[in-house]
Amino acid sequence: MSNIESVTMAHLGIDAGGTSTRAVVVTEAGECIGLGRSGSGNPISSGPTVAAASVRAATAEALAAADLPGSAVGTTAIAMAGGSAEDRVEASGTGVRSALLPLGVARTPTIEKDLLALYCSGSFEPDGYAMVSGTGAAAVRVADGDVVAICDGLGWLLGDDGSGFWVGREVVRAVAAALDGRGPRTALTGLLLSGLSLPEPGTTWARDHDGALPGLVAHVYDLPPVALARFAPLAFEAARADGRDGSDEVAAEIVDRAGHLLARTLSAVVTPEVPGPVVLGGSVLAHQPAVRDVLSAHLLEVGHPGALVVVPDGLAGAAVIALRRAGVVVDASVFARITTSLARFR
Amino acid sequence: MSNIESVTMAHLGIDAGGTSTRAVVVTEAGECIGLGRSGSGNPISSGPTVAAASVRAATAEALAAADLPGSAVGTTAIAMAGGSAEDRVEASGTGVRSALLPLGVARTPTIEKDLLALYCSGSFEPDGYAMVSGTGAAAVRVADGDVVAICDGLGWLLGDDGSGFWVGREVVRAVAAALDGRGPRTALTGLLLSGLSLPEPGTTWARDHDGALPGLVAHVYDLPPVALARFAPLAFEAARADGRDGSDEVAAEIVDRAGHLLARTLSAVVTPEVPGPVVLGGSVLAHQPAVRDVLSAHLLEVGHPGALVVVPDGLAGAAVIALRRAGVVVDASVFARITTSLARFR
Question: Which pTM was predicted?
Answer without folding.
Answer: 0.90
